[in-house]
Amino acid sequence: MKALYALYSDPDAAQRAVNFLKTARGSLGIGQRQIVVVTGEPFDGYDFSDEHSRTHIFLLASIGGIVGAILGYLLTRFTQLSYPLNTGGMPIVTSWTNGIIIYEMTMLGAIIWTLVTLLVTARLPQFGKSISDPAIWQGKILVGVTDPPDQARTELEQRLRHAGASEVKSIA
Amino acid sequence: MTHKWAMVIDLDRCTGCEACVVACHAENNIGNAGPDQAARGRAMHWIRVERYWEGEFPNARIRFQPVLCQQCDDAPCEPVCPTFASYHTPEGLNAQVYNRCIGTRFCANACPYEVRFLNFFNPQWEKPLHLQLNPDVSVRSVGIMEKCTFCVQRIRAAEIQAESEKRGLKDGEFNPACVQSCAPQAMVFGDLNDPNSEVSRLARSNRSTKLLAELGTKPNVNYLQRDSWQNGKNG
Amino acid sequence: MEKTAEQIRGDLLRPLFHSGAGYWMAVGLTGGMVLAGIFAFSYQVYHGLGVWGLNWPVFWAFDITNFVFWIGISHAGTLISAILRLANAGWRRPVTRCAEAITVFALSIGAIIPICHLGRPWLFYWLVPYPSERHIWPNFRSPLLWDFFAILTYLTGSTIFLFLPIIPDAAAARDLAHGWRKKIYGFLSLGWQGNPRQWHRLESAMHVMAIAIIPVAVSVHTIVSWDFAMTPVPMWHSTIFGPYFVCGAIFSGVAALILAMAFLRKFLHLEEYLEPIHFDHLGKLLLTMSLLWFYFTFAERLTTWYGNGVSEMNVFWSSIRQNFAPLFWTMITCNLIIPFPLLAIKRFRTITGTVIASATIVAGMWIERFLIIVPALEHKFLPYSWGSYRPTWVEITLMVAGFGMMGLLYLLFSKVVPMISMWELEAGIRKGPLVRRRAATFEPGVATANSGLAEPQSFATDVSR
Fold this sequence. Notes:
The complex is a heterotrimer of chains A (172), B (235) and C (465). Chain A has helices at 11-23, 25-28, 57-82, 95-121, 153-162; strands at residues 3-8, 35-38, 141-146, 167-171. With 172 residues, chain A is an alpha+beta fold. Chain A has a four-stranded antiparallel β-sheet, covered by helices on one side. The longest helix of chain A has 27 residues, at 95-121. With 235 residues, chain B is of the alpha+beta class. Chain C has helices at 5-17, 21-47, 62-73, 75-86, 96-116, 143-176, 179-188, 196-229, 241-267, 276-307, 310-320, 325-337, 339-344, 351-378, 393-416, 422-430, 432-441, 457-462. In chain C, helix 4 runs antiparallel to helix 5, helix 5 (96-116) packs across helix 6 and helix 9 (241-267) runs antiparallel to helix 14 (351-378). Chain C has 465 residues and is mainly α. Chains in contact: A-B, A-C, B-C. At the A-C interface, strand 2, helix 3 and helix 4 of A face helix 1, helix 6, helix 8 and helix 16 of C.
């Protein structure tokens, strides 16, 4: 995988770089998906980091919870009816105590569904090649382009540096 | 019609001889704990005779109370068993299924009468007691809870016999080992669903009380006593 | 002096790459304790439960005391991590991972104990609802089944809650390590890149987990308390047990957390990260829990004494005046009398002060669980059935092994993963100037500044560290 990227210490500079890449996309021949921003920590409050902020996670977790509740209900009620054993004069289907199991299954469902949602939507695990640089762990922001067209390379490099990059690097 | 097994114990007749305890051990293959383990509280007396002193010398009185599993209708030991090893049979007995028991001991803690016992070790019988094991009763291994079953093996044997002879059970046809061995005949066993049985008649007596009745366990063992130390009369 | 991101990562990743002799000695010691426990357990399985001190009528003692104790300790992580995350308290940042780790390990130990205490431990899986050709099934009415489901859910939830924030830190370790370590962290980080999509998904998942884990934690210890409250045993059959146990759990959990933090601070040289202010805040929390715990204890005992029930009063006096009086008053001393001045008086609420208070509290809370279980079982309804209890070497060894296991897991964990969440710490520091701007908006007459930033004012003052 080929790439060209720049490292920025200042988030505003990184924002300028991303703005440039977005507006000059057509003329440089880069698609939206080729623009990559990589950071070592979440940067809230900047446009470059706000792009994928709508998550629907609460809705999905709630659906997981409902599925868990239904499974808990089926598990307890139908097995109690299948093996009707009298204990302590209690009814065969004890709704209040089944409620405890249903509650736990609801929470388990919500938790597991949240995890599954995270893995699927964040596209983890992802062991293929992706742009990264150890410098992001020193607080730098990486802004780059994967598979840049050859003719746009020099201009890209120039403009990224102009936005305030501390370094510009390329892979392959 | 289904049976509902119950027992009546006449405390005014009980002499505290503990023949019932010995008979129960013999009938039900209860392991001997030995003197050391018994001193540590590991003895397993499915029926025990509790002895209490009342008053001071020279007006001291002794009271005997045989306590065994009360086969409660609303038994607190049943809902807490995680594997259904303790459950209620249609004939009103609290059954202990030895195979299902994994030894959580929750039932023993829940029982207010303290009539449930754990096999702390594999049971032992000193020779020649090992020769007198009852073939109708299983031998429990380590880690399993056990308790009085109203000699369910005798109940089942009598029921099977009666069924094969195509007749109903007669009152007094068979008894658990403790009832059988009681010299003053203080213990009576029978079917509460039969209004004419001895047990039903005695349970209706005005001397009839239940142990720890206020807990709501609905026990099926009735104790007959002219006066109880709870209402302070002296007979 | 302000730390740069590079310095932070260097400090926090150093223990992963370097270990001293002291570390290996500690591992050896705790490993030895665990091995002793394994030996004791094998001895118990071979000979039977009789090698314990249990008898008729005391069928639960050290085993269930330890079980409730460890489940209680596991509430540390939830409170600190989840509640403080939701309250957006910035001072939590260096503390969350230590706390979450305590939760997962304490819960694992607590989950093993019910298996070890069975009369027939090799059949523990009968508590699991699985289809069996013998048509056997567990009893959902039993509090032990509720325990099974609750602990399963809580363990799953807290493991996920621990693991999710580790992913970016593992990625940092991957990028900064070499050789076999690089491969392991590469695997652990799941190929994390760090683009905005991933950050948003991770943070939203953590937010949901924080919301979900709190009711689960409350339910877990409530259900554990119902192992006692659902029986008619005198002084067990009390409606207060649910909240009482949850309060006690959070109390002992925070104390354990303070101890763990002090330990890490000393041995991993994290003096600049785990600072007196963190111990100060946790100390105030501990003080609150101490008073709340005492309130519940007092309320329960006053009600019992006032009611004067025959069976209950036997258990009551047994704790307060007779056999268990020394233990009972030690517990009150450890849980209230010693910690109160140490935590209430600002001059004493230092790292040393909170550590002493926490150590006494952990001991006191162990005694509290013991005193709930054993006096009541020793004095049930029929006086003929009263008994006494004394532990044997097997039970004591198993208890010590539990502590050894906790230490060992924690030591091993501190080698694999940085004990302070680096990216969260970084994010908090970077938010500093934005926090001050936002704090200004709380003043009357100032127009609202930016969106989506909600750090409380207390963190603004800590940011300069």
